[in-house]
Each structure stands twice: as C-alpha cells, then as structure tokens.
Write a structure and sequence with these properties.
single chain; DNA Primase, Chain A; 591 residues; six-stranded mixed β-sheet; 5 domains; Dna Topoisomerase Vi A Subunit, Chain: A, domain 2; 25 helices; globular; alpha+beta; DNA primase DNAg catalytic core, N-terminal domain; 17 strands
Length: 591
C-alpha cells in the first residue's frame, strides 16, 4: 500500500471532533464545536473544531491543524507515532511496509512492530512473576518502600527471576531467533542466549503512547551494579525518552517536575505529582529537554541533595534553558531525595517547597559562591566579576536589572558597581569581544508571519476561506485575481497557489493543504481558514463578503504595482492606471 493512501485512510477514519472530544469538552456552536483550548490556559472558550473541514483552530493562541497535528501537539508525539495511534484507535492494521517508504519513518517497520509486541509480552511476564511466589521478595521490597498496588499496576512493575524463563516464554510465542537477538532482552556472551535481566525488580520504560520500549532493573540486595538498563534497539533510544512520560504528558500542568530515578518518579506520582519525569541516565539530554518543553513552560528540578545531584543539576539547567523553559530548583535539605522528603513532610510539605523554589539562575550563583572564599577581598572580587559576566549574558535588559537588584541583596554586592560592570561587559559584547559565560534567557519565543499590514492579510484570508467553503465561486473569482496577487507573505502566496490549484481540480480540504506545510505554518493556515461567521451567513451575505474582498485585493495589488513602476516603465504605468480606473468602477464581481 502507498504511504499517502494509508495516511488518508487513517485520516478519513479519524473524525476530528471525536478524537479531540476525548481530551476537550466540546459544545456545539452553529456549524462548529468550541471548548477551552488545551494548549493554553483560558477561562472563555476560544478553541474551535470545524467538523466539515476536519481541522481545529484556537483564536487565543493561534494554534491550528488537522487530527494528526492535534495528537502530535497534545500528546507530544512525532507524526509516525500519531499515525500509528490513530490507526490503532480506528482498528486499522499498520502495514509492515509501503510501496514508497522514503521519508515515512516506517523503515524496518516489520521488526519494530514485532519488538513492540515482544516488549509488551515481556512486561506481562515480569508483572506475573512479581505477583508469584518467586517474586515475593521483590513485592515485599515495594511494600517496604510504601509503593501502593495501584502504582505497581500503573507503572507495570515486575520481577525478573532469570533462569532463562523469559527466553523460553517468548520462544513459545513464536518469536524468531533473529527477533529475540535484536530485542536486547538477552545476552549472547557465551554464544547461547541468556536472559539479560535476572533477580531484579523491573521497571518498564514506556513511550508517550504508553508502549513498553525498554526496561530498567534493580537488585534487591547490595550487589553491583544496583541498576542495569536495556541496550538501545530499533524502538528505544535512551536520549529520546523520559521515564514516567506516559503519565506525565497527560497531566496537562503548566510545570514538569524533573527527578533522578525510577523510584523517585513513582513516589512523586503516588503523592499526586503526576507531572513528574526522570531522565534515563546520569545526564539530561537536549532531546529530553525538548520533550519537556513540549509538555509545559516551567521545569522544577528535584535531584538528590548530594554533590553528584548538584553537579547533575548544574549540567541540566543550561540544557533546559536553551529550550526556552523557566527553570527552578527545589531545595530538599536536609533530605537526600524526594521519596525521603515525602515520607517526612508528605505532599503538603513538598508542594510548599516547590512554591518556594529558587530560580535556577540564583541556584547557579549560590553554587558559584561556594567556589570562592568570600571573606577574602581578592576572591570576593573574582566572584563578583564572574557574577557580572553571568548577568551580562542575558539579552533582556529588564531581566538583567531584576537580577542585579536581587543578587546584590542576597550576596551583599554593591548594586551600583555590579550594574556598572554588567554594562561594561555588555558593551564589550556588542562590539564583538564577547564574554566567557553564556546563559540562555528564560523567554519562550514564538515566530509567525508578520501582521504589520492587517488589511491585505484580511482580504486574502477572506478570499481563500470563501473558496474552500464555496468552491462554486472559483470560476468568477479567478477572472479577477490569481495567486500572484496574494503578497502579504511567502506562506500566504504558496497557500493561495495550492488553494487555487486544488479548487480548480475538483476541490481540496484544509488538512490536505496543511500536508504541504510544517509546524507554525499550520497554525497560520488554521487562522486563515477560521471564520466562525462565514458558515452562518446566507448566500447574499457570502457573495457580498467575497466580492468586497476581491475588489479590495485588486485595488491594493494595482497600487503596489504602480508604486513599483520606474520612469522607464511608462507603458506599464499607463496600463496599470487604466486598470485602476476600471477597478474603481466595479461594484460587485457578481454583476
């Protein structure tokens, strides 16, 4: 089957109103449905779903797209994951291969599908072992740690007995030797397959779609290593996943709590902090930070309070800031980890600490101060100079001003001297000398097509919106204007070309147009084709609406061309002047 055919089959079987209705409470509003936007906080609904055109748009945050876009953005999935998820929901089997696989993300699809199935079976096997007589010791360990049966089930915890029981179980399920070897679930050091995990408490690692993709295993005694993790496979890359993301991504909070380990995540979730995740390894990666940024604008780091935890936080902070996140550090002293803190102060105590969390920059300055003897004048001068460099790295002058004021008070630095030094370093930076320290500012930036000239945009939007909904007007409209007349921006020009072409060839939908664009361009397209008033207008109103927009666009385009004429373009100038006079006489394109 052709990939595009499969995609359209899944799209046709996935009614956008039904899919979004599972996440958003929608109410009928004329020909549309509306509700509170799931992508930004609002009290009055500005989020609309257009069932006829099968796309959504929010007038508040200007996010828009089709059913694939919604699932990708809402659940933080890539396109392939969203397509597979919708196919499963619709009861459509995903082919093992397509006629054209280039660029589809389905390379080696057959193996990946089998590995997903195998890991699901392995997780089920480990879960059963935990609840059997052989897993009694592991279950008692979880009880001792205060982990409830509900959390054991929610995270699919299990126990690996070893003795090649998993290998024998999967062989009975008809997995091939090649598939078992590719799974990472077995060791072949001796030449014969042996269960990779044995005598360990098992933590299934799930992706954003709640599919098991790997495992972490913990010993129940003092033997080393305490933890071992699955090797990377066709379905698992450590740097691209987070532990607990399958639950945290559905928390829909404005913050993500980042902790260090498996047990920390489970303990936090059990206490009601379901927006908690952990990196899979000792260091946070840029890819993991990107996932977090897609979930919420704020991150609260709660790492172990020892030196290793502090060092890990200092490494993680710039990575998170680079993604535009507001980063805060929670003080856990005198407790070692979140689990210990919760047992002592309970949920209320931790929540209070989160509310009092320090901005990550203050944490960085505090840790920097520990490297200097602040009672020694020379060392204090060095600390203050380094502090000035760090503040000067912020581009936003208001941000710098706030940090100068607060840090001066906290560390007894002369605010005027600090301000002067920050300014001096900033001037050197502007001249290209640079500084020795860089901090990404904590601002979430969005880019969209310029709206400096709103009237031209409105005319162009109105015309394309009408053509999509009333293609019978195309023949009349195309006599007066063409895609070349849409000049409010490159995206609009390309959108006009595709719309004119699609309508002239029998019709085109908004989701089909969105397939030709990416990311924020789709938000822009959603804005173009969103008009809650058009659908309720009668035919006379629609014709007047379209005619006025076409005439306005014609006049603007003629004026643009006239202003571009040079002294050598006298013939062109005369033609355009004549056209302008003729356009001024047009009262309606439908007369």
């Amino acid at each position: 089957m052709d990939f595009n055919e499969f995609k359209e089959r899944v799209r046709s079987a996935s009614d956008i109103t039904d899919i979004i209705g599972r996440y958003v409470s929608l109410k009928k509003a004329g020909a549309y449905y509306k509700g509170l936007c799931p992508f930004h906080n609002e009290k009055s609904p500005s989020f609309f779903v257009m069932p006829d055109d099968q796309y959504f748009y929010c007038y508040g945050c200007h996010k828009g797209g089709d059913v694939f876009t919604f699932l990708c953005d809402h659940d933080n999935l890539d396109f392939t994951e969203a397509l597979e998820e919708l196919a499963r929901t619709a009861g459509i089997e995903v082919p093992e291969k397509f006629d054209r696989v280039k660029g589809t993300g389905f390379v080696n699809k057959g193996l990946k599908s089998r590995l997903f199935s195998m890991y699901k079976d392995a997780a089920g096997f480990y879960y059963e072992q935990l609840h059997s007589e052989s897993g009694k010791k592991a279950y008692e360990y979880l009880n001792k740690r205060g982990i409830s049966p509900n959390m054991i089930t929610a995270f699919g915890l299990g126990y690996a007995t070893g003795n090649n029981f998993l290998y024998e179980t999967l062989k009975e399920k008809a997995y091939t030797d090649e598939e078992l070897k590719e799974s990472g679930l077995f060791s072949y050091k001796t030449g014969k397959p042996r269960d990779y995990f044995f005598n360990r408490l098992m933590f299934p690692i799930m992706n954003k779609s709640s599919r098991v993709i790997a495992f972490g295993g913990r010993v129940l005694d003092d033997s080393k290593p305490k933890y071992i993790n699955s090797p990377e496979t066709a379905i698992y890359s450590k740097k691209d996943n987070l532990y607990g993301v399958h639950r945290a991504i559905r928390a829909k909070s404005d913050r993500v709590i980042l902790v260090e380990g498996y047990m920390d995540v489970i303990s936090m979730h059990q206490s009601g902090f379901s927006n908690t995740v952990a990196s899979l390894g000792t260091a946070l990666t840029a890819e993991q930070a990107h996932i977090i940024a897609g979930m919420a604008p704020k991150t609260y780091i709660i790492y172990d309070s020892d030196s290793a935890g502090t060092a890990a936080m200092l490494r993680a902070i710039p990575i998170l800031k680079k993604e535009g996140l507001f980063v805060n550090v929670v003080d856990m002293s005198p407790f070692k980890d979140p689990d210990e803190l919760i047992k002592s102060e309970e949920r209320a105590g931790l929540e209070s600490r989160i509310e009092r969390a320090d901005n990550a920059f203050f944490f960085e300055i505090k840790e920097l101060s520990k490297e200097y003897d602040l009672d020694d004048p020379s060392e204090r001068a060095g600390f203050e100079e380094k502090t000035a460099e760090m503040i000067a790295a912020f581009d936003n002058k208001f941000e710098r001003e706030q940090y100068i004021r607060t840090i001066s008070e906290r560390f007894a630095i002369n605010s005027e001297l600090l301000k002067t030094e920050v300014s001096r370093i900033g001037n050197l930076k502007e001249k290209g000398a640079g500084t020795r320290y860089r901090v990404s500012t904590s601002r979430r930036l969005t880019s969209k097509e310029s709206e400096k000239n709103e009237v031209p945009f409105t005319d162009e939007k109105n015309i394309l919106c009408a053509l999509i909904r009333s293609p019978e007007y195309f023949e009349r409209v195309s006599k007066y204007i063409s895609p070349e007349d849409f000049t409010s921006g490159p995206v609009m020009g390309e959108l006009a070309r595709l719309t004119f072409k699609g309508v002239s060839e029998g019709g085109i939908t908004v989701p089909e147009l969105m397939d030709s664009f990416d990311g924020e361009e789709n938000d822009f397209i959603g804005r173009v084709f969103s008009d809650e008033n058009y659908e309720g207008a009668d035919e006379d109103e629609k014709r007047r609406f379209l005619s006025e927009s076409v005439i306005s666009l014609m006049k603007r385009r003629t004026d643009e061309l006239l202003s571009a004429c040079t002294a050598q373009m006298q013939d062109e100038y005369r033609k355009l002047t004549l056209k302008k006079k003729e356009t001024d006489k047009i009262e309606s394109i439908f007369i």
